């Protein structure tokens, strides 16, 4: 039976690969964005957030940028979209409505599901890089 299957497979012809009719698309670079980009103030006097890069896909938009929190008033944020965040500098205390609470530091990665209500605070400052499933500026 094994030789029968190998003969049957070898007699099947693979379709020729399709040639792309789309024009090449260039990537975008944001030089030194982690240190040079200054996100705008979004809440209180210590919470800053700004989109650096956004997709052009209208059906499944993606936005990426930086969130910075300085010592002071905690930020409570309810996510209306899915987001991933990596802590790139400083530290945060991050908690949610389930009672989960962590001390987040450089290198930690988080997933905040749509509908989660997250509280961010810090004793110094924290900087996170995020990627969210949302349109530009919809945070």
What is the residue-mean pLDDT, rounded to a whole number?
89
Largest sheet features: 9 strands, antiparallel
The number of helices is 2
Class per helix and strand makeup: mainly beta
Pick out the low-confidence regions. none
Overview of this protein structure:
The protein is built from 2 helices and 9 strands. The protein starts with a helix and ends in a 7-residue tail after the last strand. Strands 1, 2, 3, 4, 5, 6, 7, 8 and 9 form a 9-stranded antiparallel sheet that branches. It is mainly β. The model has no long low-confidence stretch (mean pLDDT 89). The protein is elongated. 10% of the residues lie in helices and 42% in strands. Residues 1-21 are annotated as: Disordered.
Mind sketching the topology for me?
Layout: H1 2-11, H2 33-36, E1 41-43, E2 47-54, E3 63-70, E4 75-78, E5 83-96, E6 101-105, E7 109-112, E8 117-121, E9 125-132
Antiparallel strand pairs: 1-2, 2-3, 3-9, 4-8, 5-6, 5-7, 5-8, 5-9
Explain briefly what this protein structure is.
With 139 residues, the protein is mainly beta. It is built from 2 helices and 9 strands.
Observed structural traits:
single chain, 139 residues, mainly beta, Jelly Rolls, nine-stranded antiparallel β-sheet, 2 helices, 9 strands, 10% helix, 42% strand, EutQ, RmlC-like_jellyroll
């Amino acid at each position: 039976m094994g030789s029968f299957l190998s003969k049957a497979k070898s007699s099947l012809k693979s379709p020729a690969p399709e040639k792309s009719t789309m024009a090449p698309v260039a990537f975008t670079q944001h030089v030194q964005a982690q240190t040079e980009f200054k996100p705008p103030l979004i809440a209180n006097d210590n919470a800053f957030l700004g989109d650096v890069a956004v997709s052009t896909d209208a059906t499944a938009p993606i936005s990426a940028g930086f969130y910075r929190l300085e010592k002071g008033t905690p930020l409570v944020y309810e996510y209306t979209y899915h987001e991933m965040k990596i802590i790139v500098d400083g530290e945060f205390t991050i908690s949610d409505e389930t009672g989960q609470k962590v001390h987040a530091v450089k290198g930690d990665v988080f997933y905040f599901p749509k509908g989660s209500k997250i509280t961010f605070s810090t004793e110094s400052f924290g900087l996170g890089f995020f990627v969210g499933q949302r349109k530009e500026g919809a945070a």
